[in-house]
Amino acid sequence: MSERQVQNITTTPPRRRKGGVQTNGRFQGTRPTVMKLETLSAKLKTSLSLDFDTKEWQLTIIQRILQRYDVIFTAGTSYGKSLIFEGVAAMAGKKRVCIVVTPLKALDLDEELRLEEADDGALEMDEEEVWEDDGDEEDGEDDE
């Protein structure tokens, strides 16, 4: 076999590059940047009346959530996890919903107090409100 024949056997087929497709002024598959971290920090400080600076990891997570990425993170006690959902709720806009599930009563009560102080239209619901008997059963039996 000649050298040329060996090259044809061992090489992979050439790949064609697809040109970038633009949709609404941005590339398909990319997500828009919400705002720079410095701008986000300033807006959070104003809208949440913060008397401290937010950490870069908090800003990055809030930014990614606002870009509609799924985000999973872990942080220890008192590291500032609550600021994440408060920031997302504040920055997402009035027509957006932010659902927060807290596994501990202490965290739930703490957040309930903060929401009451903020008075920003947030709704808090716990298992006592969800499972209250409203007395609407006609025959007195459970609907199972």
TrEMBL record:
Q: Where is the composition biased (Polar residues)?
A: 1-13
Q: Which Pfam families match?
A: DEAD (PF00270)
Span list, region Disordered = 1-28, 117-144
SUPFAM superfamilies on file:
P-loop containing nucleoside triphosphate hydrolases
Any one GO MF term held by the record is: nucleic acid binding
Q: Which InterPro entries does the record match to this protein?
A: DEAD/DEAH_box_helicase_dom, P-loop_NTPase
Residues forming the DEAD/DEAH-box helicase domain are 57-117
**What name goes with this protein?**
DEAD/DEAH-box helicase domain-containing protein
